[in-house]
Amino acid sequence: MTPNPSRDSLDTLTFDNRFVRQLPADPEPRNFRRQVSGACYSRVMPTKVTAPELVAFSKEAARLIGLDEATCRSDIFTQVFTGNLILPGMDPFAMCYGGHQFGNWAGQLGDGRAINLGEVVDKDSGRWILQLKGAGPTPYSRTADGLAVLRSSIREFLCSEAMFHLGVPTTRALSLTLTGEPVERDMFYDGHPKEEPGAVVCRMAPSFTRFGNFQILSAREETDLLKHLMTYTVKTDFPHLNPDAKDIWEIWFREICHRTMEMVTHWMRVGFVHGVMNTDNMSILGQTIDYGPYGWLEDYDPRWTPNTTDASGRRYAFGNQPQIALWNLGQLANAILPVVGHADPLQSALDDTINTYSVAYKRMMAEKLGFETFEGVNDDTIINGLLALFQMAETDYTIFFRRLARLDTDALENSGDGVENRVREFLTPALYRPEQADDLYLEKMARWFKIYGLRLQEDALDADERIKRMNRVNPKYVLRNYLAQTAIEKAEAGDYSMVWELLDLIRHPYDTQKGKEAFAEKRPEWARHKPGCSMLSCSS
Ligand code: AMP
Ligand code: MG
Predict the structure, then answer these.
(1) Separation of alpha carbons 295 and 306, rounded Å
(2) Phi, psi dihedrals of residue 512, rounded to the nearest 5°
(3) Which residues pair with 252 in a beta bridge?
């Protein structure tokens, strides 16, 4: 901590709180749980905490709003971003939204433990809403406490930044602090509550508006307010669109569809499973938001979900994500329909989205395989053939594709009788159960590699260029579930070094980093069924 903290740098933050200025507020100033109608938000102050302590901050996120590292290490920064100190210009509020949870309409949800401090306008990077998660109850807290624990806060903090550096649209994380106060959680809802350290993450995004913000107004038939929020959103969050265009709602909805599916395509590329794709967790900007029981694919399994709450239905499993995103877009279309007036343009946008996603997914998979372009049916067969082979032996998705760039298909081709041994050698670092690589599997894999090799020969790209391109889309390092869990266990024991180490690692996910090989290896067996590594609940 800086001994004599100066407020200079934080005082340079310029606030322009457009959301509260331009949209109607809940007139009730008191902070108690309730249904809030006729308003987009409620003003609410964060709850003060006794012993705030900085765990980590993201210097890249800080830079976006003009804060340097010294400021982030100052006492005042910790005070502000645990909610103990409100800076001049801040006007804290919680948003009102609803949502479909696991396919069912859940009514009003809202920012139950998120408090927006204010909107910073940076001359270079634009508009950033600063939002504390875990800073105490709001009118939308329902039966919960408005708090967050260290384990889930580390996961959100690290993953937001990891996703950013991977090139996946996401909200950002500025800081991670401890409140100094315990929070009770029953991690697996099985009657074993435990006290855990309370924590706050400060998130940043140009907008935290979700599909659910529109849904709640529509469900309440507050059509004028719905239109007001839609107009506000177009003008503020989609400033490149012409709000006066005749078919503005269709144009806007098409862009939301496009951005949402682009985000999901990235998830499929890097092996990210969100875990709770409820419509209240869908950003209108197509950014990944609300990092809860998310996970990173280890062995390629489209049916895998990290979320134990979803284990029976697998609604939000890896392979279902595109379809669920579309379903959620359909719910958004229903919500805005009373203002749009006609279903046809929305339906046709949804229909087109199915096709454009399919093309985008194939193009993305072709890039992972190192093809210059996706070449139709033949490449479809290659992609589907590979994914089917992954079902025969547990294969680490990240390691397989990263290694693929290094595969010498000519040498494989010329290895004659020894080809299956070479295939085994190539695959072993990615195989969770090497014994599954039996003769039949190796024979099929060898055949797939042969076809793949021929396809590469036909491609216009030379090998060096291909390898370079593959290494730009196939990460070497992702935030493996067991790595985050190991950092959490150390942090809970008071050692934050691995949080910083992982934060550093994920800054350059596509570069081979000296001394960091262990972080690129497959999940160790001890983590296969360990809570926090393979099983997560919504408790956070
Ligand atoms: P989630 O599944 O985390 O997206 O949360 C669904 C809803 O529950 C949102 O309205 C959250 O704000 C709210 N919520 C989740 N956890 C808490 C908590 N500890 N306190 C208050 N509200 C919460
Ligand atoms: Mg949420």
Answers:
(1) 5
(2) -70, 125
(3) none
Is 3 exposed, middle or buried (CB count within 10 Å of its CB: 0-12, 13-18, 19+)?
exposed
Among 410, 416, 412, which residue's Cα sits nearest to residue 457? 410
**How many angstroms separate the CA atoms of 175 and 74, rounded?**
12
How far is the C-alpha of 275 from the C-alpha of 277, rounded, in Å? 6
**Top mutation candidate among 113, 200, 289, 540 for ligand 1, by most atoms within 8 Å of CB:** 113
536 lines ligand 1 (CB under 6 A): no
Q: Give 21-62 as a 3 state SS string.
A: HHCCECCCCCCCCCCCCCCCEEECCCCCCCCCEEEEECHHHH
What's the pTM? 0.97
Size of the chain in residues: 540
User: Of 165, 9, 15, 167, whose CA–CA distance to 89 is shortest?
Assistant: 15
Specify the ligand 1 atom closest to the Cα of 97: 10
| Residues marked as catalytic | 280
Q: Would the CB of 113 count as within 6 Å of ligand 1?
A: yes
Evaluate: CB of 290 within 6 angstroms of ligand 1.
Answer: yes
Q: Assess contact for 72 and 57: CB atoms under 8 A.
A: yes
d(CA 294, CA 310): 11
Distance of alpha carbon 279 from alpha carbon 211, whole angstroms: 6
Q: How far is CA 431 from CA 63, 105, 229, 231, 393, in A?
A: 40, 41, 50, 51, 7
Mean pLDDT by 10 residues, the chain (540 residues): 57 95 98 98 98 98 96 97 97 98 98 98 95 98 97 98 98 98 90 95 98 98 98 98 98 98 98 98 98 97 94 95 98 98 98 98 98 94 98 97 92 85 95 96 96 94 96 98 97 98 98 97 94 86
Rounded Cα–Cα distance for residues 456 and 409 (Å): 9
Rounded to an integer, what is the distance from CA 274 to the centroid of its chain? Answer: 6
Amino acid at 244: D
Show Cβ contacts of residue 239 under 8 Å, excluding neighbours closer than 6 positions.
Answer: none
In ligand 1, which atom is closest to the CA atom of 146? Answer: 20
Whole-number Å distance between alpha carbons of 216 and 105: 10
